[in-house]
Amino acid sequence: MTGEISQPNNATRPPGEARPFGIRVSAAPEDPIMKLVDPGWHAEHWYTTRAERDAALRDMGSLHRYSRRTDPPSVVLTAIER
């Protein structure tokens, strides 16, 4: 098992691979975390295909299995393209 990657992610893809489909993650202005980060804070995740991006978008937008039903996710997820 030496040399294998146990949990591959986007960072393991070849640098020249085109990933035109993305998800922009941000927080709503009223979210308490906005007091701790810059007003324009956001993160982007990029994918090779629209289907891959859409699957990740559904997964990211779903309620985490350890979350309480009364605590909906407070992130804003936006599909983007380059």
Gyration radius from CA atoms, angstroms: 15 Å
Span of the ends, CA to CA: 37 Å
Q: What's the helix-strand series?
A: EEHE
Which parts are unreliable, with pLDDT below 50 for 5 consecutive residues or more? none
Helix percent reads: 10-25%
User: Total number of helical segments?
Assistant: 1
Average per-residue pLDDT, rounded, comes to 84
Form type: globular
Strand ordering within the main sheet: 2-1-3
- Going by helix content, strand content and strand pairing, the class is alpha+beta
Strand content: 15-25%
Count all strands and give the number.
Answer: 3
Largest sheet: 3 strands, antiparallel
Offer a concise description of the structure.
This protein is α+β, with helices and mostly antiparallel strands and 82 residues long. It has one helix and three strands, in the order ββαβ. The protein has one helix spanning 50-61, and strands at 21-27, 43-47, 75-81.
Structure description:
With 82 residues, the chain is α+β, with helices and mostly antiparallel strands. The protein contains one helix and three strands. It has a domain at 24-62 and 73-82. The protein is globular and about 40 Å long. The N and C termini lie far apart (37 Å).
What is the secondary structure topology, with strand pairs?
Layout: E1 21-27, E2 43-47, H1 50-61, E3 75-81
Antiparallel strand pairs: 1-2, 1-3
List keywords for this structure.
3-stranded antiparallel beta sheet, 1 helix
